[in-house]
Amino acid sequence: IKIGRLRRIPVDAVREFASKLLADAD
Q1: How far separated are the first and last CA of the chain, in Å rounded?
Q2: How confident is the model over 1-26, as pLDDT tens digits?
Q3: How far apart are CA 20 and CA 26, in angstroms?
Q4: pLDDT of residue 1
Q5: Distance between CA atoms of 23 and 16, rounded to whole angstroms?
Q6: pLDDT of 18
Q7: What is the dihedral sign for C-alpha 10, 18, 21, 8?
Q8: 10 Å Cβ neighbour count for 20?
Q9: DSSP string, 1-26
Q10: Is the pTM value of this prediction over 0.85?
Q11: Checking phi first, is residue 15 left (phi over 0); if not, alpha (psi -120 to 50) or beta?
């Protein structure tokens, strides 16, 4: 994953993605 791409990703999208990972882990 390139840092340049990460900067373009909205924080909300990152939080949503993280929430999905946590839900799957549960």
Answers
A1: 25
A2: 676 776 777 889 889 999 999 998 76
A3: 10
A4: 60
A5: 10
A6: 92
A7: positive
A8: 10
A9: --HHHHHHS-HHHHHHHHHHHHHHH-
A10: no
A11: alpha
Residue 7 CA to chain centroid, in angstroms? 11
Q: How many CB atoms lie within 10 A of CB 2?
A: 7
Reading the block at residue 3, the tokens are: 């840092």
Question: In which residue are the tokens 């990460």 written?
Answer: 6
Structure tokens at 11: 């924080």
Residue found by looking up tokens 């993605």 in the block:
17
> Six-digit token pair at 18?
């993280």
pLDDT of residue 20: 93
